[in-house]
Amino acid sequence: MKELKSQFVGALLVILTVTAVICAGVNYQQQARFHLPDDGATWMDVPNTADSEQSLRVVAAHVERDEPADLAGIRKGDIVRMIAPVENTPGVPVRQASDVAQLLFQAGVWGKATYTLNRNGVEITAKVIVADANRDRALYFQYFVGAAYLAIGIFLFFRRNQAPKALHFYFLCLVSFILHTFHYTGKLNSFDTGIYIANVVAGLLAPALFVHFCLTFPEPRRHWNNWQAISVYLPALSLILLHLGVAMGVVHTALPLIEMRWVLDRAWMLLFCASYAAGAVLLHFSYRRTEDTIIRQQLKWLRNGTLAGIVPFAALYAVPFLIGSVPSPTMRLSVLFLAFIPLTWTYAILRYRLMDVDIIFQQGYVYMLATLSVLGIVYLLVFALPKRDELSPTSVVLLVLVAAFVFEPLRGWFQQQLDRYFFYKDRYDYRRTLIAFARELSSEMDLDRTLMSVGERLLSTLSVGHVAFFLSKENEPGFQLHTALDRDGGRRRLKSERLDLSFLLDSPEDPYLFFESTRHALDIVTHGKAPSVRATIAELDLTYYLPCNFRGKTLAWLGVSRSNKGDFLSSDDIDLLASLAGYIAMAVENARLYRSLAAKAEQYERLKEFSENIVESINVGILAADLDDRVESWNSQIERLTGIPRIAALGRKLSDLFPEELGAHFDALRANNQVHQLYKIPLRRDTLALPALNGNGHANGNGNGTSNGTANGKSKVERTEVIVNLAIAPLVTKDGARIGRLIIFDDVTEREDLERRLVQADKLSSIGLLAAGVAHEVNTPLAVISTYAQMLAKQVHGDEQKSKLLEKIAKSTFRASEIVNSLLNFSRTSSSEYEALDLNKVISETLSLLEHQFDKHAIAIEVDLEEGAPLIRGNAGRLQQVFLNLFLNARDAMSNLPPGQTRRLSLRTHGEEASVRVEVRDSGAGIPRDHQSRIFDPFFTTKGMQKGTGLGLSVTYGIVEEHGGMIEVESNPGEGALFRLEFPAASRKPVNA
């Protein structure tokens, strides 16, 4: 219920505050825009004893000097009979003072009204130009005072709403805000009426609230009860009822309305000044009675602020008004002194940085002395001029420049002198050297000596009772007491060894912790904390705890007590400590880093070497690029794949190292934070390799982009084109911030070849089964056709025409039978025995069978058969078929070349310990790239009709596989074709043998 009540009160105050602010804003807008007609005279109803028909007469009670009425000749005591609101129109009789206001509204601002007056029995006429009511500047200054009240009230209530008297103080500020910002405009509508009533109620209620506040702060007085509280508000409530009754016409008096209003205004002014003066006296008595230091400071500044605001206001405005003076513009400006009340209350009630008020007055002394000195210098210069009554513009400018240049040096000199000889005295030199000392802390590595030196300087500089340093634990959360010094600089001994420092947080929200009454545990901040925490705060007896932060981390806490006199520190002192706390944190960090630097460095080197070894040991290419796509890491495997050495790649952009097509993929995925895969991307080394570098950064490989290498004990040719799978992943820190990306190159060339061979083998297996079935099914009808054709040929032996037809049928049958036999040979595994044979001999014998064919087509033969090459195990007939098919395909590829173009067939063998390689190269038109993956498929051919069956290379592939070898092709359009064959040596058993 208590929490529900608090929430309800808070919501109600929010609604009232928002309503008051909106109404004040509307009222201010109307004050600025509404033009109220005014003639500068105050008209009052006076009983008319001379005329029985008219009971009242309207008399000019006061005429403002130099206002329209005064300029028109109207004098105090003149009786107005009629007013013509428009020039050259009949006059309207004036029976009461309110008629004058209505007729002025009809005339309007800057209208010409004709007044018919009676002065000492003589009727006169006055032409009055109605002017705009002269809005007093003090009226707008009151908005500033009201805003100050509301600002401090909101700040206090929403930050310290649980503090004693916080609700009362906020309500007082809200009522004071309404008093100073609600002013009726004269429009006399419903809103203006509400503003008037709120202004009256707030003006009479604010003094009573203040007196009540002074009677109950900081604690209610003895024998204080609710009836006594009600008695404080009775005068204000009585005046409110009387004021509203008169304004609404409920209360009638013998006095004229204007005089009754003056009486009520004077009564309110007397109540207002008397209440605030009485409140200041009550605060003074409370100040003398209390013993608590902080309460005394609060009461002192509540009292001083009240007196600073109400005394000048009462002397300059209230007293002259009470004795009958009409408020002048100068008198109204004294309302600005009331702003001292909310400003000083702010520092008194908040309790934090209470001594800042002393700093403000100290600065005020400095600026006042500097200003008086500058004025003295200017007056001396003026009196030194020969013609001081006739100052030229040049002289005025020179005097202004002198004042501007002299003020700041004088202010600094006064500040220095007052600090040295009045404000800080013997502590002044220490304050000047403390900041310089703070800069030296970062160079000290001994933490104990550093903290002792800091503590001694703080004790002597700020004259505090004792200080302490609490350092963060390195292996667990929390803090522990490291050093505590007493006022003499010696180590302080505490009664309790177990301290509950859980109130010191790793990430504090406030700039510092402040405990007002550590010994008696009366502070609002300590309310609700564990008993062990409260006991620790009392044992340490430290008023201020400042976090020592470095790079966003709290490494230590600095604890400082009150001054030796029991006073709190000023904001200058707190700022000084806050600046020093940063250097202390830096010193702590430096000391700890220095202690662990060697271990960390050694660990870092080990980790670096370990991570580099991991990256180098991975059998994939890895590169790391920054956010600008510049290479920062390039391992040896990617050197092998691209042929680009690390020294040439580091610092280069990806677009400079890779082809345009691949660079487009990199650019498209630059802003993506997900992992992406790119499959089977071809990389040609001749398009990647950079120019050779001098020194250690040189590229390996020969001129055509190939080099010999050995892997797994087997020598093989380095390909100019490799197939890679790419993985592109963002490179992030442990905090999740992206700093670049990783690109992983997985060489899948051999895997791709193996997959292609498996697919080819699967195709051949399927085609073999199909061919076997087709061959057996086709052979029977072919045999029947051939037999009957031969029988018919014998029967028509004498008929030459029919014999030719039957001969063609027989030849076609034999050709079909050859195709079927080729299918059978393709489908079945040879049952012939394998024997050791010389591959060079097989090639030479096959080549001799086709010499006539090559001569016929003008094809030159280049033979480079290595002598002494190892023997292989195989079937000579089957291998002869392989080379026969390759030679015939080469012949057909070169037969279509234009006359005069080179036609060359190159044969080369190379023997190694474990294998024999054969290269068959022609200078034909080459094989298109999109056909190279299909040339070993059965029935695939690029020859014309009647020129091939498409079985030659598929049969060749099958025979090579039977011998445990491999066959592959390289070709570029227009550059011929190169078939590479590799057979295991006789010492190795063929896979399919």
Account of the protein in words:
With about 1000 residues, the protein is of the alpha+beta class. It has seven domains: about 5-15 and about 135-350, Rhopdopsin 7-helix transmembrane proteins; about 40-130, PDZ domain (Pdz3 Domain, Roll); about 360-425, no CATH class; about 455-595, GAF domain (Beta-Lactamase); about 620-700 and about 715-745, Beta-Lactamase, CATH 3.30.450; about 755-825, Helix Hairpins; about 835-985, Histidine kinase-like ATPase, C-terminal domain (Heat Shock Protein 90), CATH 3.30.565. Helices cover about 50% and strands about 15% of the residues. The chain contains 28 helices and 27 strands. Strands 2, 3, 4, 5, 6 and 7 form a six-stranded antiparallel β-sheet that branches. It has a five-stranded antiparallel β-sheet with strand order 10-9-13-12-11. Strands 15-14-20-19-16 form a five-stranded antiparallel β-sheet. Strand 9 (about 465-470) and strand 10 (about 480-485) form a beta hairpin. Helix 12 (about 355-385) runs antiparallel to helix 13 (about 395-425). The radius of gyration is 55 Å and the shape is elongated. About 25% of the residues are buried. Residues about 350-360 and about 690-715 have low confidence and may be disordered.
